[in-house]
Sequence to fold (326 residues):
Amino acid sequence: MNRHRTAASVLLAAGALIGGALTAAAPSAAAESPASFRQQHTPGFWTAERMRSAVPLDVVAAPGTGRAPATTADRPTLIAPTPASAPASESASAAVSPMAFPQAGGAWTGGGAVVKTSGRVFFTLGNRTASCSGDSVTSANGSTVITAGHCVKYQGAWHTNWVFVPAYDNGNAPYGQWPATKTFATDQWAASEDMNMDVGLAVVAPQNGQKLSQVVGAQGILFNGGYNKRMYSFGFPAASPYDGSKLVYCSGNSGKDFLLTKDHSLACNMTGGSSGGPWFQDFNETTGLGTQVSVNSFGYTFLPNRMYGPYFGNEAKAAYDKAQNS
Fold:
């Protein structure tokens, strides 16, 4: 058993948590249920320099042994994308050359909605800073970000000072910083950090009287959509050879993990900091819109240049519903 767990250990794509020490104490906050956490924030905490120095965390852990997601018996649930309330000149997509497909990891230069809906996530773990990635998705409250479970809670502790920075640009926040009012995880991740259920969400506060989806738009999302799709994944990897300053993508025909989880699998060399970045099927390179079906989650140490993302089944749908209705 010990040999099996050691050989099966995985490297989460969250990167190494060696960011600078905090200059202010982490705020107190309280979990309202086992799978949600009410956030509090230190005003002005996330300066450009602090965002640049938030280096993600290398986590080694064995996948959980919880029930695998159902994949065939459950009916697909599709939620459509939400366009941003932007002037036509800003929201219009310029003609672009086709991007490489397949692509094992490269800068996204195609433009479109994905540039605004995706962003970096920043948070504190105790008295240290860290980062992940996330994406704005259509929701009843118009203020929901989806990410990886370990980007909201890890080793039994909820992250604090949690903010989403859409279209992050090397310390700049062109559409503002969006602090979470509450963070969520699947029940299975919150209880046992089951790698099959590595899904987290956040509800962010309105800024200047506008909700997140009004400002940056929101991608569509699909639950119980099946496997083996033409897939695009996005994120802000911050560990070498990347530096977290730009949006990176991978693309290719996805498969299914044949080892220890029921995750999607995709050839991809993104590194720490990309965790929580969106996976899309039916992605349109011209508009930058797709249907989100997963997030960057982990990679096996003995299988480099391959990323895995949780299957969005009933468990992920239940967490999404809690978030979008809060």
